[in-house]
Write a structure and sequence with these properties.
Length: 337
Amino acid sequence: AEEYEVVLGSSGLFVLTMALFARAGAFLVLPAILLYFWHTGRINHRSLIPRNWYSVAGGLTAIVIAVGCNSLLRQWTGASQNVLFGNAAFSLYGMAAGYKGWSQIFRDHPEFYGSSNPVFINQILEATWTLIQHQPLQLAKAVVLSFGDFFVRVFGFAKFNFLFQDFREHLILNLIVVSLLNLCLFAGVFRLWKCRAEIREARLLLFAFTGIVLSAPFVPPIDADSMRAYAATFPFVALITGIGMASVFGLGPWREAAAEGPVIPIAAILSASVISIALLGPWAVRGAGSHANFEVQKLCSANEKSYVFQTHPALAVHLVEDSGQGLKESYPSTTVD
């Protein structure tokens, strides 16, 4: 039974790591789960250093394999020249500026427009380090604000319209819904804490939730795009919230139940299917296609400059007559700073 648990736990960590590569998010959940593996082994053997490191070694191996698979995917899809998680530099500058969002870099340094990707990232990091040296308290303030903003935005999807835009028709109702969901979330955490000694899954959820919350300064909720950056780890939040709802409404006690025999093969098949989709899906969409450079006959006159766009049929390029024409004329809901 222990071998099956190690295999299932490792495959789950593999899928979670691949999901975090697909949409960068709360990466600290990975060391948090590894810490849970170590903690569980220490409890079982009543020693500081567990005798059995199978679960920790299996989890580390799964993460390393996921990193290798992501590298292969980047090679297959032609994305190896891009900076991995380059957007984090934008968010880091926004944090250093006092929790002002990723776009703050362009307000403070408009000269960065048009720079090439690697050079651009280095310029942002240098500007961020300079800002931290001159105003270190701004970063400390941003860290505190990110934790509070996490709980404000974590249930941002549960609203009747966009809570953080200019619509106010259902603002009070939206705030009530989000507040009740946060209440259930905290109730779930409290219930898990009470039964952490009896139910090992309670400890897993507590460790995972701690890793998610501690990731807030590294994945600022203000930049998380309606918390989509936390999509890979949101099932943990939803499960804890559901446990809290059961506690608030006085449903029956939660009891630990061992997985029955047929459950393990089904879980393994589902995990293998998800892994196959995560690996082969991007290759089928982009990797199988050719990336040849197209030669287009020059159609412009001598005093004009031609541009060639190689794009996907599902994408769209909107051309305007002059640079002074704004997006507001074509997309009324768009806000341009």
